[in-house]
Amino acid sequence: MEFKFSEKVSHLQASAIREILKYSADPEVISFAAGSPAPEALPAKELEELSKEILEEEPSIAFQYGVTEGYTPLREEVKKILAARGVFDPEYDDVIITSGAQQANELSAKVLCNENDVMLVESPSFIGSLNAFKSYHVALKGVRLESDGVNIEELEQKLAEGGVKLVYLIPNFQNPTGNTMSWEKRVKAFELCKKYDAVILEDNPYGDLRFAGEDIKSIKTLDTEGRVIYSGTFSKILSPGIRVGYVCAHKDIIQKIVVCKQVADVHTTMWSQMLCCRFLKKYDLDEHLKKLRKVYEKKTTLMLSQIEKNFSSKITFTRPQGGLFIYCTLPEGVTTQQMVDFCTKAVKEYKIAIVPGTAFEISETDETRSFRLNFSTPTDENIIKGTEILGRLSKEMFGD
Amino acid sequence: MEFKFSEKVSHLQASAIREILKYSADPEVISFAAGSPAPEALPAKELEELSKEILEEEPSIAFQYGVTEGYTPLREEVKKILAARGVFDPEYDDVIITSGAQQANELSAKVLCNENDVMLVESPSFIGSLNAFKSYHVALKGVRLESDGVNIEELEQKLAEGGVKLVYLIPNFQNPTGNTMSWEKRVKAFELCKKYDAVILEDNPYGDLRFAGEDIKSIKTLDTEGRVIYSGTFSKILSPGIRVGYVCAHKDIIQKIVVCKQVADVHTTMWSQMLCCRFLKKYDLDEHLKKLRKVYEKKTTLMLSQIEKNFSSKITFTRPQGGLFIYCTLPEGVTTQQMVDFCTKAVKEYKIAIVPGTAFEISETDETRSFRLNFSTPTDENIIKGTEILGRLSKEMFGD
Known about the structure:
2 copies of one chain form a homodimer. By secondary structure, chain A is an alpha/beta fold. Chain A has 2 domains: 148 residues, Aspartate Aminotransferase, domain 1; 239 residues, Aspartate Aminotransferase, domain 2. The first copy, chain A, is 44% helix and 16% strand. Chain A is built from 14 helices and 14 strands. Chain A has an 8-stranded mixed beta sheet with strand order 2-9-8-7-6-3-4-5, sandwiched between helices. In chain A, strands 10-11-14-13 form a 4-stranded antiparallel beta sheet. A two-stranded parallel ribbon of chain A has the order 1-12. In chain A, helix 12 packs parallel to helix 14. The termini of chain A are far apart. The interface between A and B is large, with 81 and 81 residues.
């Protein structure tokens, strides 16, 4: 039987990362392709203990239906944390718990964008969000990302073209680049969105994972009227498998997201929400984050030093101060196809999985000679071994 | 700040049930408004035990990212169960695990329907699905539901009008009516959808909860080419709070649902999936269902006898052979507004929560003089007390 799929979905492809990850299933493959937290950074023992408490003390809450807005005690904890960071304004903001930040970003687009509405995104940007926006047939336009955030002139130019509903930004340790937006650019971007009446969707999954430099305040701290939707997650600091994220936004927006979440999955798994809540109540979050940051600092430093030591000197790369990713760029003159060939050869012949930059472009036919490396998932041993092999291949293909 | 919400969402209202459920938060209110499984029917102890095993034996699977298609061992278990019932055809079908059947139905509409595509639904039907379809701006048309399923003449007439993409049916113990579609009507509906090239979305959340009469085979058992999408859930037989459902459909449809689920929530909570899987492997599902059915049979019988004893004799009601709901209809001549007044008075003045039939109509302005009663959530004592009070109110308002 031939099916007529909806237009918004028929053009959507399974992500290129999925193809790469298929190879990663081979236990011999060293994967630099994932976006998972370091296994040793997950508080598995603590969560196991908390889970026991939940199921002994409150099984009926864990196993029965909950409300769509989320488990009230968790919402209160999240509000407290965000208020302390200047992100939650009790005057007009509200918080909803979502099934990961993926759902937070998807529902934000759904409530605000009609088909063919314009949305500006960093170029490159996170493939999961790009595909979520595309699945509502939103017209995506890229704004070139620089080491300190989007190019402001280009942002203004594209806002001035009109019809922009949403501007999607990942200001901290961006996926895929690892770049962080400067405070100056955050202020300018916010002012521009105000001038052209666009809403900002500020996605901050990695902000807690800063291991170097000084924290930069969220764009949401500039907000006085509800122009910024802020999304966060417990995936990188507690566990991704439990699927808990949240949105902090103007009450009116949250109300619409609640309606959409109700029809999407009724509510987020109760046990997952209760785990996060108990963790926040029992443990000192700052102490926990300090431990995580040490793990990530060690791994980044190791991978950066190995890249310097092993890669072709013509390859440039970012030096993130947090997050999970390093973005490498092949020498000028290298074509997109040669970059894809490099990634394909790396996984097929050398069993090192990396993600080609095409995955993070608005269209997979856009040109790029970059690729993404993840340092959080592999062991130290595999970081050393994998970068050595990638280094040899890079020199072979692009010279010393 | 004034927000311009997307057209598909701006017309969506928080469900009327939510308003009623707000009153239900009052511990003094007896709620016949929920759709939750009976607390005593949830295998909480077994699930608690299985949870301990999971977190001791496989914490890294439970806490890390999983694949969008679902936890492979659970998909295999579901395929086995569905194959035994003639629902899964390994030739062309596949299965994806979803975050409850709500997501199963929502994503089915998303992958197949453009905005303004026509979808036929039973009238009345499940509000969660109706709102999910509306959130994609699908044009819903109702087909009158009779005690043995939709009116077949009307179904053909509306199919013949053309442009119907999907036909949404809940054949077993339908929500809100409790009605079950006869085998003859299942066959006819299937043949008609074949004739007019529409896809059927068969939603079967309650099928396992039959406590009287003979099982009737799923419409999906008639399928030979992938015309039927079948959705199911663990919400009513294990736990709703864990949010695990599934879709069984043609591989091509599943592939598109996978892409949409990836952008919706990446994957369903791993722990929840592992719980279902271990339950199915360790316990005899049929034995478990036998226990559940006894609980539900007892509760339905009790509520039906109390309705007969206490309600105004002019009120008619369905006699479901399974599921969670009884649908009552006020005497002829009663207006929609009078029915809503009855429901409002019941909860506000008499502290008995019931759901007005308007909640299950395509438009909340459609006329109906019915209301829904749930017998699974209240205790036996409250069933007796609540129906007595409702009975008094019904006689007061509509005569003996």
